[in-house]
Amino acid sequence: MRTTTLFFSLLSFLFIAMSSCNSKVELSSEEAMTILTKEFKASCSKSLLTAFNSYDKKYNTFISNAESAEKNGLVTINRRFISGFGGGGRYEISLRPTQAMKSKYFVGREKYRIADGYVTEILGVSHDENTNKATVRFSYKYRTNDLYYLRGRKEECSSETFEDEVTFTLFDTGWKLDK
């Protein structure tokens, strides 16, 4: 009787141990959203408006946006008188990026980050049975930043919703986004 009890105890232990080794921890949509919200990086980068003149049709909008950026320490405005008489005339306005703006928004080749991507929805999670990996399909949009209104005349970031996918790997410390 004692050996039978010991045998069944050992058999139960082995069954529990084997089933726990085979159990997989699946990545939930909520956990994927939490990780992506912190780690997803996508930006829309465009050339900025660097000069315009007082005869430009959109002068009031341009100068208002430039003055706002100057107040925020992003640019310095230089006004240069070009032509005209008696208090009127034409001015050329040039914008120079400050070091603060360059360090925060510059991405290279005269382009600046004018909008940042943010995840809007997890569309699906697919788990690979043979590895500790999961593929997550998601949608995202762009949110404009302080430089958006200093972009070139025809430079815009799309307002549409984009789709992308990323891979996650399960480590002993939890799910991590593959870079």
Q: What percentage of the residues does DSSP assign to strands (E)?
A: 35-45%
Number of helices: 4
Query: Kindly state the mean pLDDT as a whole number?
Result: 84
Structural classification: alpha+beta
Report the order of strands and helices: HHEEHEEHEEEEE
Which helices and strands occur, and which strands form pairs?
Layout: H1 2-22, H2 29-39, E1 43-47, E2 51-53, H3 59-71, E3 75-83, E4 90-97, H4 99-105, E5 106-108, E6 111-127, E7 133-144, E8 162-171, E9 174-177
Antiparallel strand pairs: 1-6, 2-4, 3-4, 5-6, 6-7, 7-8, 8-9
Description:
This protein starts with a helix and ends with a strand. It has 179 residues and is an alpha+beta fold. A hairpin with a 2-residue loop joins strand 8 and strand 9. Helices cover 29% and strands 40% of the residues. About 5% of the residues have low confidence. Strands 1, 5, 6, 7, 8 and 9 form a six-stranded antiparallel sheet that branches. A three-stranded antiparallel sheet has the order 2-4-3. It is built from four helices and nine strands. It has one domain.
In short:
With 179 residues, the protein is of the alpha+beta class. The chain is built from four helices and nine strands; from the N terminus they run H-H-E-E-H-E-E-H-E-E-E-E-E.
Keywords, separated by commas or semicolons:
179 residues, alpha+beta, six-stranded antiparallel beta sheet, three-stranded antiparallel beta sheet, elongated
